[in-house]
Amino acid sequence: MEDVREESTKENTTEKNTAAKGAEKKAEHRKRIRNLKKMIIGVLLSLLLLPTILSVVALGQIHQLNTQLNQSLLILADLSVQVQEVRRIAEENNSQAVEMETNASNPVEQIQQNTLEQTEVPADPYENMVKVCLTFDDGPSRNTDAILDVLASYDIKATFFVNGHPGFEEQYQRIVNEGHTIGMHSYSHVYSDVYGDLDGFAQDLDQIQSFVRDVTGAESVYYRFPGGSSNTVHTMDMQDCISYLDAKGITYFDWNVSVGDALGYTRSVSEIVESTMAQIRALDADTIVILMHDAPGKETTVEALPILIEKIQALDNVAIVPITEDVTPVHHVIR
Ligand SMILES: [Zn+2]
């Protein structure tokens, strides 16, 4: 009996084990199914969400591309405007070049026209007339104002070859301010100093040029040698002095008519007028330079001046002018 019970117990135990194993398997099976369902749902969700996400991303990129495209179109429009502007300028330049080319169709004429424009200088109004220059040496003096008054009353310009005379600053200034030419006649007019040697000549020249500049502000470029360039009061080679003046850009003037007011005696007014007019009539020259003196004791020169002016003005084709670069220099010494 005991064996039967044992057998029965064993059978019961075995049945119980078998049932437990079946339940375990079923639970595992359900778990697998759940997992499988989760996986399927996950896959399904992924399949549904992915296109949406991709669409959103794509839309963002499309928007960005659209913005870039708009910017590019704006830049392109700007470039187009710039290209049109460059083309317009190029066309303008081209038309100007054609115009210039047309104007310069005759290169010689063009060069001549340009040269004329660049070098045009006022024409000499007395080019075809006999020029008479009234020149006054040795001043200024107490006679200068009277001489300037006479010249002003006839509206005539003359030339004053001055020495250094401190105290007459007003007269130097009047000469320049009233439009006359101021020339130099050495500072000292002392022959031994002016013509001692070239250094002495240069020093004296610098002194009178500086003096005139300081008093009047004018730069004198004309010179008259004391005694003239043909004087015989010195042993210097006058050519050295002339070369020195040339190097300084200074032009010297002698004379070809003299009123004779420095002959050691006082000439009367009529003597001055008759002698001077006789010399002028006898002279066959385009330029007449008359030597006079603006010095104390030369009162008859001042008195003769208006008469001389009127007689000269009465001559045909004659103009009384100051010394300028338009006047051909009169020289005693021919270089
Ligand atoms: Zn003199």
List the topology elements.
Layout: H1 2-103, H2 107-119, E1 130-137, H3 144-153, E2 159-162, H4 169-177, E3 181-184, H5 191-194, H6 198-216, E4 222-223, H7 238-247, E5 251-252, E6 257-258, H8 269-282, E7 287-293, H9 299-313, E8 318-320
Parallel strand pairs: 1-2, 1-7, 1-8, 2-3, 4-5, 6-7
Helix pairs in contact: 8-9
The chain binds zinc ion.
Residues 137-138, 185, 189, 226 line the site of zinc ion (ZN).
Structure notes:
The structure is a single chain. This protein has 335 residues and is an alpha/beta fold. The protein has 2 domains: 1-122; 130-320, Alpha-Beta Barrel (TIM Barrel), CATH 3.20.20. The chain has helices spanning 2-103, 107-119, 144-153, 169-177, 191-194, 198-216, 238-247, 269-282, 299-313, and strands spanning 130-137, 159-162, 181-184, 222-223, 251-252, 257-258, 287-293, 318-320. α3 links the parallel β1 (130-137) and β2. Residues 97-105 have low confidence and may be disordered. The chain binds zinc ion.
Terminal-residue CA separation: 181 Å
Structural class category: alpha/beta
Summarize the main sheet: 6 strands, parallel
What's the mean pLDDT score?
Answer: 85
Ligand catalogue: zinc ion
Rg on CA atoms, Å: 58 Å
How many runs of DSSP E, i.e. beta strands? 8
TL;DR?
With 335 residues, the chain is α/β, with parallel strands linked by helices. The protein contains 9 helices and 8 strands.
